[in-house]
Specification:
The chain is mainly β. It is built from 1 helix and 22 strands.
Length: 379
């Protein structure tokens, strides 16, 4: 006679209730994690508003047409230009968006809502995924010489053959911390996104040994920041972007002018102790790469990504002290720069989808420029 399997024991009422609650929590967990934070400044700066449900009019939060960056968690969110999800709408996947300008929504969001996980969305409605944070270090000032690109934490630049060799830097996406000893020991400085044509201004030329990305929500004391950088135009392709060739309509060489290029070298004064903050300055460098870009918005607003030609402007900052330290002095040194026929940059105009665009480039363009569907230049 075949034995029958024993029946499964019944759950007690308390266990059954507990199981039901766990099942309900499992279903609600994705919704609880679906959050969006919008920031008034790029790279998650300035005033912000946190939302976990649809908002038909951001005017009630005092945040209509003010968002310039966003952090999306848990699920996808739809953001629209006008209230009640009218006008141009874009879907943001979970991730960090240091700038909304690349999707034409900088300071143009009027309503937002979470999308159901099962809702099907056309690929054309998605915003390009943001490019990852990146730090590029150069072996010479003004972004020349050998370079190394960091996409992740580097505890010891010696392993990359670049210890104590960086003299200029470009920061893309988010903030980076750079330190003059390995494993983030010694003096550390936080670099905002932008171009740093000379690290001498902050006493870090040929002294960087470790680097790491700073979390977007990390609070950093103001005295830990490097001087404000020259704005950078991030021309890296984004995942999911489509590319087009835009016709160049004019290209004009802008010649360098004679003058002086000055920088600051920091010298230590032995046997003198001070807690004073010491300002730094840099001046006079012409920046290579794509320098600027302007796009006509078509609705009374312009997207303007200011690039980086610096001609004699000085930048300053202050460095905090952790207790008495040997005093230093900043010594300014200058060299003459010849002018003449050497182009400082090229002022280029191009047309895309009936709109005129303008960009400054380090080299003469060809007949066309690669752009995304917003007309923004891409490498």
């Amino acid at each position: 006679m075949t034995a029958r399997p024993a029946p499964s024991p019944l759950l007690s009422p308390s266990l059954a209730l507990r199981a039901a609650l766990l099942a309900a929590l499992a279903l609600l967990a994705p919704l609880a994690l679906a959050q969006a934070t919008f920031f008034q400044g790029e790279t998650f700066g300035g005033r912000n508003v946190f939302v976990n449900d649809e908002i038909r009019n951001l005017q009630r939060q005092g945040f209509r047409d003010r968002a310039s960056s966003a952090v999306i968690a848990g699920q996808r969110w739809e953001v629209c230009e006008d209230m009640r999800f009218q006008g141009h709408c874009t879907v943001l996947r979970p991730g960090r968006y240091p700038t909304l300008a690349s999707m034409g929504l900088d300071e143009r969001i009027g309503s937002v809502r979470r999308l159901d996980a099962s809702e099907r969305i056309s690929e054309a409605r998605y915003a390009p995924e943001p490019a990852p944070a990146q730090l590029i270090l150069y072996g010479q000032e003004n972004f020349r010489g050998r370079s190394i690109t960091a996409n992740d934490t580097l505890h010891n630049l010696q392993r990359a053959g670049f210890n104590d060799r960086a003299e200029s830097a470009v920061v893309l996406g988010e903030r980076w911390e750079v330190c003059n000893d390995t494993r983030f020991e010694g003096r550390c400085v936080v670099l905002r996104p932008g171009r740093y044509p000379s690290l001498a201004a902050m006493g870090l030329d040929n002294r960087i040994s470790s680097v790491r990305e700073v979390a977007w929500d990390a609070r950093v004391a103001s005295n830990r920041y490097a001087p404000e950088p020259v704005p950078v135009y991030d021309s890296r392709p984004r995942r999911g972007e489509r590319f087009f060739e835009a016709e160049v309509t004019s290209a004009r060489a802008v010649l360098a002018t004679s003058g002086q290029r000055c920088w600051v070298e920091r010298e230590q004064l032995p046997q003198v102790r001070s807690e004073a903050n010491v300002p730094g300055a840099i001046a006079g460098a012409l920046i290579g790469g794509i320098l600027g870009h302007q796009v006509g918005g078509g609705s009374g607003k312009d997207i303007a990504t200011v690039g980086g030609v610096v001609a004699g402007a000085a930048l300053g900052s202050q460095y905090g002290r952790n207790g008495p330290q040997p005093a230093t002095q900043d010594v300014q040194r200058c060299e003459n720069l010849p002018g003449g026929a050497q182009p400082a940059y090229w002022d280029v105009s191009y047309e895309f989808r009936g709109r005129q665009h303008r960009v400054q480039m380090a080299e003469a363009p060809g007949n066309t420029i690669k752009v995304n569907d917003q007309g923004e230049p891409r490498q």
